[in-house]
Amino acid sequence: MTLRTLGRRPVLPAVLAAAALALAACAGEEATADDGDSLGTVVVATSADDFTGGQLAYTMAVANGYFEEEGVRIENYITDTAPNTLQALINDQVNVGFLSLSTTAQAVEQGRNVKLAAAVQITNDWSLIVSTKWLEDQGIDPQEFAGWPIEERGAVLGDNALWATNSAGGLWERASAYLADWFGFDPETDVQLAPLENINKIAGIKDGSVQVWLASSPDNRLLVESGDAVEALSTQELVDEVPLVANARAAETIVNDDWAQDNRELAEAFFRAYQRGADFVVENSVDDILAIAQEQYADFDVERIRTVVEVNKENLPPDSRHSEEAIQAQIDFAVASGNIAEPLPIDEVYTDEYLPAE
């Protein structure tokens, strides 16, 4: 397929502004506080209102008490969206957050010292799903559609179809725009990229008001299993056919590197506990992980949590590290999707110096 060069998208204008999120005290000051055996507090930006699985190693480290054992107090600060998380990181309001490297790279391009410090995903677990209700309304049999060649599946996804995304300008919107372009559509005129809440995406896929969604675990798997959606591009097809999108990993563990350099003992203790959480995910069964996750997220549907655990257990880098090739692929996606103008050196966006020695 022919891919035109995407224009640079105005991804995070607010991130680079001086506006501050309200916190009782600066995260840098919180981090250095000492209380008995504690090394200090690490303020972590999270979307704790939802269980997406992108923080599975972190969740297990918290649940098993690893941070306390390493002398680290955790203060969770809910930011909900990647732009808010990055803004908090670059404004020294939080020390660690979960977002994509391609989103982080824009701040690095502007001179901010934030880096990917622990790898969360081997590849992204998303797939491009299509509403079966909408296909049926178009006179297309969903099961036949699923067996079509990729080019034929993609051909029906334009004509002003609504593609659901997350926050405007975020990773999902940029990856969706990239895929629309890869299929031969102009992402600004041939499709509608619409930021929607997760509950509205799910309902929209079911009733056909949302036609296309680049969805992650657990929603992509559950909607396909329920018959409400079929895949236009499976996770494996993205790996094989559109590797830049497959390598655009979400929810990586990003650190404010200025804070980490100034608080190295605390930062190393944080990532030591984090790695113990990753080890727990790798070494234990889905059922064992699920039992703990259910305690942490008692209000969430068990099937959703199980799906997330299954997918992310398979997709977690055992040592929380990426190869140079994997980092370069994320930088390449940031350039290709218009998030940064030029490639950045790997050492400006990635560090593994706070992780335990291999």
From TrEMBL:
Keywords, ordered alphabetically: Signal
SUPFAM superfamilies: Periplasmic binding protein-like II
Lineage: superkingdom: Bacteria
Keyword NADP included in the entry's annotation: no
Region forming the signal peptide: 1-27
Protein's recorded name: NitT/TauT family transport system substrate-binding protein
Species lineage: Bacteria, Bacillati, Actinomycetota, Actinomycetes, Jiangellales
